[in-house]
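Protein modeling request. Please complete all fields; requests missing the sequence field cannot be processed.
Requester role: graduate student
Desired output: 3D structure, token encoding
Chains: 1
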Amino acid sequence: MTTVTPRTDERGQVLVIFAGALVVLFVIASLVVDLGFAFMIRRQEQNAADPGAIAAARYIHPSATGAADPTAMRRAACFYARQNGFFQSATSNDGCVPANDANGTTLTVNYPPSRSAGRYAGNPGAVEVVINRNHRTFFGGLIPLPTIPVTSSAVGAFDTGSSNSSSLISLDPTSCSAGKIHGTGTIDIHPVLGVTSGGYVQVNSSCSSGSTDDVCGASSGGLKIDSNASNFTAPMTYVVGSCQATSGTINGGLDENAAYVGDPLAELRPPRLADYPPGKCSPTGPALAPGDRGCRFNSAGTINLQPGVYYGGWAIGNNVTLVLAPGMYIFAGGGVTLNAGGTITSVAGVGGAPAPVMFFNTDDPSTGTGQSNVDFEATGTLVLRPISSGPYKNILIWNDGNGSNPTSWIKLGGQSSLDIAGTIYNPKGLVTLEGGSGVGSSNTAAIQIIAWQWDIGGNSTLDMPYDPQGLYQLPQKGLVH
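Delivered output (481 residues):
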């Protein structure tokens, strides 16, 4: 007897699988084609944005005394956009508008640059050019992707070396009280004689629980004033969020809901330890080496130090006076501690002025010993001037933002006398400045603080003159971003 086994017909299943696979391959191929066209458009946009930004930057300083000309900047950027195939219907360099482009391309010229420009955001020495076109996909009907937005941007600079116009910059974008004023004393930030602008305060924090009405209120804010607000004066104070104060408003003008400003020193290369000699804890002592515990200054008296790399940092005891020769002092691990009665000054130069120095706080690379806090809050005197030449001219203190402990804080102050100048840079940490008990010219901080957060105060008069010639300057020209 023959048994017949029923057979299932599978030919239809193969056809369904093949058809589905074909659709998937077709979608992938369409995406590849569209993405390829998007990359071509982006290259075309970049070819227009780059020369457009360079040309626009010429109008930041159109003449020796002329003010920036945003209208001319846009015309210059429009010229190169048209040269690269955009805005075909435009008849002049004022016609770079979506209506004059078959694809609705937009041209945006931001002066100063927007937040998307990173470290150049808000920089009056730079201009940003942005070109955007929506690419209509060839196979947009197959998937819900009818267009692909393609955007390119460039930043051009024309800065001959002017310092940032702010005396205080807080980089923290979100925390409440990222900038803080405290104490019962008077704080006066002002341009020096002959300088017509600058000495501003910038707080990037968007913290705001009240209205942004350009008046310090009781609600939380990016800037907090823990003293009588009328004791604090600056030419202008800008806060991305709002200002908080117990009473009154600050002197000199307040702009809440202000524009964000990028870190002006974000791309500055730090010193290399190998380029500097090892430090010595005394003129006749042995040279420090990687892994050492640093200098422990415990005996009262005066100690003269030379520039170099101080592995393990400094611990300065009571009644110790450190006198520093001109140059670079690098703390490789350990940081600085300054006990009661300690004094830091520098060798008097021509005319009795303090000698120029710079402090760089970083890790000990050989042992992995991390950077620590820098405490220059002397109960005696603190007299320092920044380094006066080279790539770090006018920087006084720099805490390495790329070290193992980038949030290390910097404290500065002098209870009997404070006399310091230069730029202080702590991109990821706090800088605290305490005015001493002296008044007037004996309590002067001609400094610029660029830090994640800062806290400024004291119980006497703290004079903070703004002199751009004494601060770090970064000359830049051409395409920078």
